[in-house]
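subagent[fold] <- orchestrator: predict structure for attached chain, return tokens only, no commentary.
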Amino acid sequence: MKESIKVIHCSSDRCSNCPDGVESMCQRLCSMSKESEEPIILAEADRGLLHLRFTGGHLRTEPPWYCEGWDSVYIGNNDELFCELGNLIDFYYVGPYLCFFMREYRNTHVKCVYRPIVRTSLEFSLLNRLTEEFKNSAGSLFGTRERLTEQQKRMMHEISQYIQDHIPEINENTRTRLSQIVAHQTHILGPLIPILLDDLTEEVYLDGPDTAAYFDHQKYGRCATSITFCMDDVPRITTFIRAESNLHLDRSNPSLKMELDLLSTILRLSVSVPPLSTNSLYLEIRRARREPYSIQNLIENHTITHEAAAILLLAVACRLNITITGGPGTGKTTLLNALDMTTPQWWRKIYIEDAIESRPLSNHHQVRLQVDSVDEQHKKLNKSEEIVKCLHRSPDYLILGEIQTAEHSQALFQSIAAGLRSIQTCHSDSASNLISRWIHGHGIDRSNLGMMDLVVTLERPKPGEALRRVKEIVEIRRGIQDGLVTYVGTNVLYDVTNPNTIHWAPDGAFQTLAKSLGIKDSQKSIIMLIDTVRNGGDKMDFGKLGEEMWSYGHPLRFACCESSRLR
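subagent[fold] -> orchestrator:
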């Protein structure tokens, strides 16, 4: 949790009658000199001002009306936020906004409040006037085919030009900041934009009109907001989504998924309307980080241990067939993208996704295909068909995104049986449940099931909290019966409750592959790799690591060479 935040409430006459004021010095600020790393806020409710000093900033013993160096923001005289500062646990800037996080509900939940960055009451009044004026002009253009990012950039330019023409004394930085805020507010999703621009936001939820939106935050888990949309907003939201997606959203097709670009922030929207949604409209927005998590990032935030990371790095380098499973929001796609970043650059990878969640990687050979969502009733681009077509597209690795239906599963195992290597995600809470679903729900033959190699399960131990972790890594055990591959069972290779012990099965994926290569002691590879991952630190290039392992002929051979200790 963020270090404590010192809040000093200043009186309307500032230091004149304050017992802590000695000439231009503030005794309370002086007393904080030994705690110089802590953030400080001076609050002037009667003047509507917050004066900020962020973590690690230079400590000021004089208030901002006596010295420079404070960052001051005007939020409105006696704004309700002043009464909530006692519960403040964090604050930071997101674009042209200041975001505040407060503990509430018996200290178990976090509330997020944002305010536009304006410096004075005059700026505040100008912002309100511009918002009213340009909201009307934006409304007259609503329904055109202009994309969201294009609309926002055009509006920013027009507003900035308007300010320059009418109030030329406003400097460029202020003009840019105000034009951004006003442009955001002209859009129907404007109230959500400060949250969507935050790189620590994971998913945003709106359960219906007249209900407060809430979201999942990387640090603080599930956060409440006071943002609501009314019934009158619903037609504008649905019209916007139809125009952006070019898909049906009506009674004949009451749900869809789509990708949306918001000023270089990639969003995935999932929306439902009647008759599927009983509360008029349901909206979920998943946000992709500008910089995707790497394996090193996932180790640092405790999603994955060094041992689990080493196993998966070796599995990907060996091109094993891997399914990543877990419940909603457990980080399946995040882990898949992190593993994708570790593949050698020369591999040809084909991606098949309904919502594009993979990332373009510099100097990698990537073919990214987008198919229709399972929600789309008028599908023309079918995921199952495209998986089968990959037999003639010569991929080194097939990255399939989410496997959702029986048809998807059958196409997946058909491609594996034909010799393709793949990695994909699928919803389940354990390997055993997923295998049961494949066999009994999706009709996968046990002989085909034996061709899967690993099932990785992620979990979110406490709903609504930020922590996700790799729970277990399970090998599919296979045998030969009457000359045919068959599914024998599973082996829990790794368990988060006992991460230092790796259980190898002689008929598991790794040992079976090692035997086919004539390697007697493949366990040396994983032991060395764990050592390498643990000691590599921030400078470890996992992409180069995979390439280095292949330089010995095969990743399972690198431990057999005297010079194979990787740095």
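orchestrator: received. Logging for downstream: Residues 6-103+110-117 form one domain. The chain has 16 helices and 23 strands.
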